[in-house]
Amino acid sequence: MPDVKRVIKNYREKMNNVTFSRQVEYQKAFEKYKVNDNVILYESFHGKGMTDNPFAIFKYLLNNPEFKNMKHVWVLNNSEDNEYYSYYKKFNNVEFIKTHTKQYFYYLSSAKYLINSVSFPPYFLKKR
Which keywords has UniProt assigned to this entry (predicted)? Predict the structure, then answer.
């Protein structure tokens, strides 16, 4: 029979590892939340800005009445330095989040559409 104290100690040590703890938090969200068909998550260069193709797609969808029921979630780590943040934060259907937060895990695991300029974190799993 395994030593319970050793198992707990090993778990605590792993949870202090940033990569492992992010994997655990994402896995919890992945199992807990269902896909929301009306949510789009945008991420450009790991949350460094609102740029590139994700931003062009965002502007098109936001201004198209056919997609007025969609919620647009932007991953933006530093909103203070972003020229578009103060304009778009006023929209009811636009939300801003930071990478590797509980909100990020929630939307990454529940948004129906994921629009990205590079890759998602290594712990990301696509829902079927």
Answer: Ligase, Transferase
> Which pairs from 11-17 meet CB under 8 Å and 24+ separation?
none
Q: How far apart are CA 24 and CA 128, in angstroms?
A: 20
Q: How much is the pLDDT for 127?
A: 85
The total of structural domains in the chain comes to 2
Residue 44 and residue 50 in contact, taking contact as beta carbons nearer than 8 Å: yes
Strands of 60-124, DSSP E:
71-75, 94-97, 111-116
Residue at 109 is within a domain: yes
Please count the other Cβ atoms lying within 10 Å of the Cβ belonging to residue 4.
8
What percentage of the chain carries pLDDT values higher than 70? 98
Closest CA to 73 of 114, 35, 33: 114
pLDDT of residue 2: 65
Residue type present at position 33:
Y
Residues 61 and 18 in one domain: no
**Quick check: is 54 in a domain?**
yes
Q: What is the pLDDT of residues 41-76, one digit of tens each?
A: 999 999 999 999 999 999 999 999 999 999 999 999
17/65 same-domain check: no
